[in-house]
Amino acid sequence: MAKSVTLQRWSVEDSAELYGIRNWSAGYFDIAPEGDVVIRPFGPNTPVTVSIPDIIKGLRERGLDMPVLLRIENILDSQLSLLHDSFRKARESLGYKGEYRGVFPIKVNQQQQVVEAIARYGQKYHHGLEVGSKPELLAGISLLRDPEACLICNGYKDEEFIDLGLHAVRMGYKCFFVIEMPSELELILERSKTLGVRPLIGVRAKLSSKAGGHWTDSGGERSTFGLTAAQIVDVVDTLKNLDMLDCFKLLHYHLGSQVPNIRDIRAAVMEASRIYAGLVAEGAAMGYLDLGGGLAVDYDGSRTNYVSSRNYNLDEYCSDVLEAVMTILDECGIDHPHIVTESGRATVAYYSVLLFNILDTSSIEYGEASDIPELDHETAEPILNLRDTLKNLTLRNLQESYNDALYYRDEVRQQFLHGKLSLRERTVGERIFWVIIKKIAQEKTKLPQPPKDLSAIDTVLADIYYGNFSVFQSLPDSWAIGQLFPVLPVHRLAESPTRRAILSDITCDSDGRIDRFIAPAGFKDTLELHPLKDGEEYYLGVFLVGAYQETLGDLHNLLGDTNVVSVRIEENGAFEFVREIRGDSVADILAYVEYEPRRILEDLRQVAENAVREKRISPADRFRIMLAFEDGLRGYTYYER
Question: Model-level pTM greater than 0.85?
Answer without folding.
Answer: yes
